[in-house]
Amino acid sequence: MAGAISMSGLCGSSLQTRSRGLAGAQLPAAPLRAQRSQRSVTRMAGGENYPANWIRTNPLVPVLGFVGWTVPTSISVPVLGGHSLFQLFLSSIGDNLAAFPRGPPLEDPFWLYLTVYHAGLFLTIFLGQIGVQGRQQGYFK
């Protein structure tokens, strides 16, 4: 009944906790054993450190990405019954807000419109960021 309880933590280290014996006396715990972690630090050629602003975001890219995805999805197509993806997405939001305390069920087409619209939006912004940074850094010459 009385003894140390072993708990496993991050990196395979083990932690021993103290427990109380039958009479309530505190028993000594085994020492804490931690494994050494090996770290590998990579430096760039010429002794340069990796730049802190490695992502180099451009605030114009999300704005143009939003416009560049929303405008084409606002064009009506015959596959969607003469409606546009953006129009169907906004109307499904309105329909679900009409029944506000109750959320949309899993078979509601809202989830499909939400997934398709946002996947395309994030892909457009992602590829736009790659294009802008590639042009600035001279990859497309």
UniProtKB/TrEMBL annotation:
The keyword Manganese does not apply. Keywords: Membrane, Transmembrane, Transmembrane helix. InterPro entries: PSI_PsaO. Pfam families: PsaO_TMD (PF22832). The chain crosses the membrane at residues 63-90, 110-132. Coiled coil: none annotated. This is Photosystem I subunit O.
